[in-house]
Design a protein that fits this description.
about 100 residues; alpha/beta
Length: about 100
């Protein structure tokens, strides 16, 4: 299951992570987010050498603002505390895997 990232744990779980972290910015009312959710969960279950988590933009608007998330779903890949890849909209699993593996 994908981790839940919040302002309380984002620094430790994402920014200070020793491995790349794929973060899905989503909302419960967003249909494309619902379409992407099973893909994110699959990636979380299969993650090898990276971490997967989600940020609910309604519950964590300051994180969404901080990373200029204007549309959802937005997937960001963090490495060494920095955003190194970004994708907006529903993406196939393979594309997201490639994003995090190339980070």
């Amino acid at each position: 299951m994908a981790n839940t990232f919040t302002t309380a744990n984002f620094n430790e779980e994402v920014l200070q992570s020793d491995i790349p972290v794929l973060v899905d910015f989503w909302a419960s009312w967003c249909m494309p987010c619902k379409m992407l959710s099973p893909v994110i969960e699959e990636l979380a279950e299969e993650a090898d050498g990276y971490k997967v988590g989600k940020v609910n933009v309604d519950e964590e608007p300051e994180l969404a603002r901080q990373y200029n998330v204007m549309s959802i779903p937005t997937v960001l890949v963090f490495k060494g505390g920095q955003v190194v890849k970004q994708s907006v909209g529903v993406q196939p699993k393979e594309a997201l895997e490639d994003m995090v593996r190339m980070a």
